């Protein structure tokens, strides 16, 4: 992620305050991959200067994660299975994938959402499969908040503690830049793995 984009995000968060954090974190939880690993450290740098502000920021961001999850959950619940059954081959998805999601969420749904909200990338997309599996929505939102809060707090804390050196320590900018390159590389590698593995399965299951 370029320094210009980071500067734009810092400016948006600094000028928009908590409203900008709510918007960005809600978008991030609606299956749109704006990494929280970028948003929350920058929010901590721009908005959190005391422990109380840090707690408020983590709480607001966690509530925003719930807000953004609502449309993704309902898209999965109302149209996810029919959509995948009809158009899944275009997305390299199959009914077997849906059955695996249903079985997994029936057995491990709560702990999956809880842990998934603490994992990069996974937290962005977890609402859709939870909706497809029709996980109890109240339970989903409770575990989304519980899982999101420590994640958001930790990232904002890092931003608050290290952000003071943003304009005075060029080494910090370099480390921050490498970190985000790493996040982007993981996203790209995960996408490549998904395509390759599902393409192989598609070839195996196609009739001769």
From TrEMBL:
InterPro entries linked to this entry: DedA_domain (IPR051311), VTT_dom (IPR032816)
Keywords annotated in UniProt: Cell membrane, Membrane, Transmembrane, Transmembrane helix
Pfam families: VTT_dom
Residue intervals passing through the bilayer: 6-27, 140-159, 179-196
Chief location of this protein within or outside the cell: membrane
Location of the VTT domain: 34-159
GO cellular component terms, semicolon-separated: plasma membrane
Organism: Tunturiibacter gelidiferens
Localisation per UniProt entry: Cell membrane
Topology in membrane: Multi-pass membrane protein
Protein name: Membrane protein DedA with SNARE-associated domain
